[in-house]
Specification:
alpha/beta, 16 helices, seven-stranded parallel beta sheet, 40% helix, Rossmann fold, Type Iii Antifreeze Protein Isoform Hplc 12, DRL_cat, six-stranded mixed beta sheet, globular
Length: 439
């Protein structure tokens, strides 16, 4: 197998680059367009956003001139433009997937419903899918991955985002035969379960970072961390030690001590967990490992890995969308994923009220006013009939619910036209029920 940099140069020389279509041209999407513009052997041909002008702006920020960009929702016009070396901006995600040149689709929408719809189009047209949309992955990832496998395409989380980066280190550790004690990430902002976009402090910080307040709040209220670590759990089989994880306050130098068993002076009831910490860890990610082989222990000590019994594998950065093109190449060239869910859920992202909710109230989006996400064992969530957070948006409350209460399926009326909901029901009936029976 070629080194990936050499392979990209080879593809460039042959005039056969990996052809990518991008759905969603927000902050992350614009990064992807810019990064691919600097790479050899890969081309971002079609960019889709609700407003095509946003897609045009993404191309222009990457250095493309107005004359190089064609705005169209017409399939034949788009295919012709790509064949002539032009870039296409569009509002039609179906066209972007269907275009004959497209090999890989990157979903950067952040909408669970859109993630489900985009991936189903990829399955129909046999296009690989890079699922940046972890909100979708934690809701219906197993069924989507199964359908992609059957269609002969690759479903993958993205390199550079914490779940993908953690999966890369986890695979490295498991390949070497280490026992994984804990895998996690650093959180780079305070944790405020009740934060909302209307709070001036967070609105001002969002404006300074040129991001939507809702997106910032998804991080601040902990939802994004819960979702990301749920994706890791479902890709690896690692579990939350407790609901919501521990959220330890510690620094890199303390990770192996804090994320160890209580009998060793740490915080864990068991090994093999996902978690996160607030300290100097962010933007890094970590995997804590152990071994019972004395020869290996001696070797780790000699290589300044500490005295054990736990040892730290730490990556001090993750580049988010800037690394995403690597996953697109992995899929198209090598048929490999950066990380993907197993055939059932290990963990669930459940929905917890951030305020008192009234019957008849329609729930807003993750990172807004009504609710936050938390992580729980999938079988516990199943027995408790807990509502997956990916299904919450647009649900209508049937009863009053108190702040901090877990929202359950029987408390809400769901949108029956949702593709996401139909896939979730299929997943529960065909995959998760089979996993429960096998236990």
């Amino acid at each position: 197998m070629y080194e990936i940099d050499s392979k990209l140069l080879e593809l460039e020389a042959k005039g056969t680059p990996v052809h990518v279509s991008l759905i969603g041209c927000g902050q992350m999407g614009k990064d992807i367009v810019a990064q691919i513009s600097k790479m050899k052997g890969i081309s971002c041909d079609i960019v889709v956003d609700i407003d095509p002008a946003i897609a045009v702006d993404g191309y222009q920020q990457a250095g493309y001139q107005a004359g190089d960009i064609v705005v169209t929702d017409d399939l034949k016009a788009a295919e012709k433009a790509v064949s002539e070396g032009k870039k296409v901006a569009s509002a039609d995600y179906r066209m972007a997937v269907a275009a004959c040149q497209t090999q890989v689709v990157i979903d950067a929408t952040g909408s669970p419903e859109m993630g489900a719809r985009v991936t189903m189009e990829c399955i129909f047209y046999k296009r690989h899918i890079v699922m940046m949309n972890v909100e979708c992955d934690v809701t219906v990832g197993p069924i989507l991955r199964k359908l992609c496998d059957q269609a002969g395409i690759v479903y993958s989380l993205t390199a550079g985002d914490e779940p993908g980066s953690i999966c890369e280190i986890y695979r490295f550790a498991k390949a070497l035969g280490f026992k994984v004690v804990a895998a996690g990430k650093g959180k780079n902002n305070p944790l405020d379960f009740y934060a909302n976009p209307g709070m001036k402090e967070w609105a001002d910080k969002a404006a300074a970072r040129k991001m939507a307040p809702r997106m910032l709040i998804e991080f601040v209220d902990g939802s994004k961390t819960m979702i990301e670590m749920c994706a890791v759990s479902n890709a690896t089989g690692l579990v939350p030690d407790i609901r919501g994880m521990h959220c330890a306050k510690c620094n890199v130098k303390d990770l192996t001590k804090v994320f160890s068993l209580k009998s060793q002076g740490g915080i864990l009831e068991k090994e093999g967990v996902v978690d996160f910490a607030i300290g100097d860890i962010a933007p890094g990610i970590f995997v804590v490992v152990t071994t019972d082989n004395q020869r290996i222990i001696d070797g780790l000590v000699q290589r300044d890995m500490g005295d054990g019994p736990n040892y730290l594998l730490y990556r001090p950065y993750h580049l988010c969308s800037i690394e995403t093109p690597i996953t697109a190449v992995q899929e198209a060239v090598y048929g490999e994923s950066t990380g993907q869910p197993m055939d059932h859920l290990t963990s669930e992202c459940i929905t917890i009220a951030k305020k008192n909710l009234k019957a008849g109230e329609v729930l807003d989006a993750i990172g807004e006013y009504c609710y936050r996400a938390s992580i729980e064992l999938a079988d516990v969530a199943r027995r408790g009939n807990m509502l997956p957070v990916g299904l919450a948006k647009g649900a209508r409350m049937k009863v009053d619910v108190q702040k901090d209460e877990v929202i359950t399926y029987d408390m809400v009326e769901l949108n029956e036209t949702s593709v996401l909901l139909q896939l979730r029901r299929m997943q529960d009936q065909l995959l998760c029920s089979a996993a429960v029976q096998a236990q």
